[in-house]
Amino acid sequence: MPVQVTGAGKAAIGSTAVEVNVTATDARAPGWVSVFPCSSPPAPGSETSVLNLVTGQTKAAHVVVPVGVTGPSAGQICLRTQNATHLVVDLSGGYN
Predict the structure, then answer these.
(1) Nearest-5° angle of CA 31, CA 33, CA 35?
(2) Domains of the chain by residue range
(3) Residue ranges of E strands in the chain
(4) Quick one: which of 27, 37, 49, 90 could link to 21 by a disulfide (CB 3.0–4.6 Å)?
(5) pLDDT tens track of the chain, all 96 residues?
């Protein structure tokens, strides 16, 4: 799931990384959440999880994630979940 994290009301355009708090809530089954730059997604199965969840759990993690600076995914981070869950992404700031 791509999330635009740079631009109006967000981190500065050209930021190379962002600091975000990712909250997963109402997990439908045990699983994980990974966060990565959309411009360089990991191969399926090689993700590093930032959250590990059990059914029905709400859990948060604070992470720094690189951001693509060119191309169609410029200014975006992506989230991937193993199983269905609701996600909230709060942007704390960006790094140039």
Answers:
(1) 160
(2) 2-95
(3) 2-4, 17-25, 31-37, 49-53, 59-66, 76-81, 86-95
(4) 90
(5) 999 999 878 899 889 999 999 999 999 999 999 999 998 888 877 788 999 999 999 999 999 999 988 889 999 999 999 999 999 999 999 998
